[in-house]
């Protein structure tokens, strides 16, 4: 993820003949949820682009930008917002490969990237295809994406784990104290008879030793 919009940043091929310019920013939360729910498909082949563009517009992506959707990888989307770039169509598959690689291994800790809008805003390509093959295009586009993310102040997201605890009413306070001691957030509490069910999310880093500690906190 990034703290704010970043770019444009220039990614240059090893032979210096090809340049790609990228911008990045966080996707609207509604778009991320739609991807997670399967309403926006993964990959680069979309059966009904018109419907997809309309859906993106409803979720906060402008129609002009939505028409440029190229690929979805994880919870991230690549858009091409360039106009009239010669030879770009011939290299787009390689740009998508770069995008997928960058989203799978981000620039901060080689972790998967979450919830980003990647915009290709400009490109300059060599007229001879032999000078814009995979060895030139992929590192250039990847470095352009990474650079824009760095300008946007990339950051790590802390992983959380969903925890469900079933305890009698008389030891409920001990269970909730143990969850909160581990920086847990109580999401829901329900009761059936004398049995209480607590659902919480807790940072994964705080879960070590949880099983034994929760037994101690609730008298077994």
Automatic annotation (TrEMBL):
Cellular component terms per the entry's GO annotation: cytosol; ribonucleoprotein complex
Gene3D superfamilies, alphabetized: 3.30.230.10, 3.30.70.240
SUPFAM superfamilies, sorted: EF-G C-terminal domain-like, Ribosomal protein S5 domain 2-like
Keyword Cytoplasm: yes
Residue span(s) of domain Translation elongation factor EFG/EF2: 43-153
Alphabetized UniProt keyword annotations: Cytoplasm, Elongation factor, GTP-binding, Nucleotide-binding, Protein biosynthesis
GO MF term (any one): GTP binding
Domain Elongation factor EFG stretches: 155-220
Descriptive protein name: Elongation factor 2
Source species of the chain: mine drainage metagenome
């Amino acid at each position: 993820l990034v703290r704010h919009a970043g770019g444009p940043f220039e990614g240059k091929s090893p032979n210096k003949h090809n340049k790609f310019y990228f911008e990045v920013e966080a996707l609207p939360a509604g778009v991320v949820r739609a991807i997670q729910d399967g309403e926006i498909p993964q990959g680069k082949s979309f059966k009904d682009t018109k419907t997809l563009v309309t859906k993106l517009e409803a979720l906060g992506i402008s129609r002009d930008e939505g028409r440029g959707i190229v690929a979805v990888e994880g919870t991230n989307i690549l858009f091409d917002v360039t106009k009239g770039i010669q030879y770009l169509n011939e290299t787009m598959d390689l740009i998508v490969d770069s995008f997928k690689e960058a989203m799978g291994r981000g620039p901060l800790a080689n972790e998967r990237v979450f919830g980003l809008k990647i915009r290709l805003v400009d490109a300059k390509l060599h007229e001879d295809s032999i000078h814009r093959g995979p060895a030139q295009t992929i590192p250039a586009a990847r470095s352009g994406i990474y650079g824009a993310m760095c300008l946007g102040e990339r950051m790590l997201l802390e992983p959380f784990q969903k925890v469900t605890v079933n305890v009698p009413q008389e030891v409920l306070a001990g269970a909730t104290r143990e969850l909160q001691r581990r920086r847990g957030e109580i999401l829901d509490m329900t009761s059936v008879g004398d049995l209480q069910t607590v659902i919480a999310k807790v940072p994964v880093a705080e879960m070590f030793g949880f099983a034994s500690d929760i037994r101690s906190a609730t008298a077994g």
